[in-house]
Design brief:
The protein is an alpha+beta fold. It has two domains: 43 residues, no CATH class; 69 residues, no CATH class. 11% of the residues lie in helices and 23% in strands. The chain contains one helix and six strands. The strands form three sheets. The protein has a two-stranded antiparallel sheet. The chain has a two-stranded antiparallel ribbon with strand order 3-6. Strands 4-5 form a two-stranded antiparallel sheet. The chain is globular, with a radius of gyration of 18 Å. The N terminus is likely disordered.
């Protein structure tokens, strides 16, 4: 099967209702994709459905029509041609000269802070 046929199969699933979805006030996100052996699927980070370990820092979806009001956030919204992006806030370290603080603005092991599913 060619890569094009695999992509057509994935796109067809979406058209035929192969995705289960959840709704929130801002977007519809895929929760489940039917398994297809040898096919590829890509998911946007903006489609996350759950986050854990977000007591210190949390991921936010920034859209042109809704920018999170979380401080500190050292930079303005920066879409660079995209409709939305995810950003972990609060920004307590905004450049390399500022100190890394384990458990506050840095986690040296994956899976310890601000996990998306």
């Amino acid at each position: 099967m060619s890569i094009i046929n695999k992509w057509i199969g994935i796109a067809s699933l979406g058209l035929l209702g192969g995705f289960s979805t959840a709704q929130d006030s801002t977007n519809e996100v895929p929760l489940e994709l039917l398994p297809i052996e040898g096919a590829y699927a890509f998911f946007e980070a903006e489609s996350f459905v759950e986050q854990t370990k977000s007591e210190t820092r949390k991921w936010y979806i920034t859209k042109k029509e809704s920018v999170p009001d979380v401080k500190p956030d050292a930079d303005p919204a920066h879409f660079d041609g995209a409709d939305a992006y995810v950003e972990v806030l609060s920004d307590t370290r905004t450049n390399h000269s500022e100190k890394l603080i384990n458990g506050e603005n840095f986690a040296p092991q994956p899976g310890k802070m601000a996990i998306l599913k």
